[in-house]
Design a protein that fits this description.
Belongs to the ARG7 family. The protein is of the alpha+beta class. It has helices spanning 6-30, 59-72, 87-98; strands at residues 36-41, 47-52, 81-83. It is built from three helices and three strands.
């Protein structure tokens, strides 16, 4: 006579899925070195960039953050900081900031 426990089996599957997604999120966080943060840039297709925290003090970067706040508020669709500008514009700006 076997005892069936479908709820327990279902719970194990959910835990397995959530732990694997948590490990993916952790591995993405590990990719960002200390003193840096990740942003997603682009208008339609988002590309991930890792930039120094020191950029947060720069007025031109703060303007981009204000644009992101106006467009997305605090609910970012990518789960991280999303900046609504073209990738070329972002690369141009960060290359200028890198020279400071």
């Amino acid at each position: 006579m076997a005892i069936r426990m479908p709820r327990i089996i279902h719970a194990k599957k959910i835990l397995r899925r959530s732990s694997s997604s948590a490990s993916k999120a952790f591995s993405a966080a590990v990719d960002v070195p200390k003193g840096y943060f990740a942003v997603y840039v682009g208008e339609s297709e988002k590309k991930r960039f890792v930039v120094p925290i020191s950029y947060l003090n720069q007025p031109s970067f703060q303007d981009l953050l204000s644009q992101a706040e106006e467009e997305f508020g605090f609910d970012h669709p990518m789960g991280g900081l999303t900046i609504p500008c073209g990738g070329d514009i972002f690369i141009d700006l960060t290359s200028k900031l890198g020279g400071l």
